[in-house]
Amino acid sequence: MSYDVEKPDEQWRVELTPAEYAVLRQAATEPAFTGEYTDTKTKGVYSCRACGAELFTSNTKFESHCGWPSFYDPKDSDAVELIEDRSHGMVRTEVRCARCGSHLGHVFEGEGYPTPTDQRYCINSISLRLMPDEG
What we know:
The chain is mostly beta strands. It is 10% helix and 31% strand.
């Protein structure tokens, strides 16, 4: 897979904190209910912490009570890349930044949340950076 933003592993290790690196580049998961944006209601745009690509908006963020920020739709359909993930003995759909390939979280469907898409993009706070709306 080729991405618009490609960097050698050593460069990612320098640019990201160890915790950011573990999630964004090694697909780790931050502990539930510990992320900076889990309960945030601030209006704005959530960007990839690794490359700055705009991924989600506060308009599609919803309370899922799952322990991670949840969105029902990405900002643009081509902002994220979905990849089948068969790790940990289950089949899930991994969500990555389409610009740099960084791991963001997973998307789940059919859970019955009252959202327009019936999808829950369960995203690690540490993968995101919120840019609040002006004014």
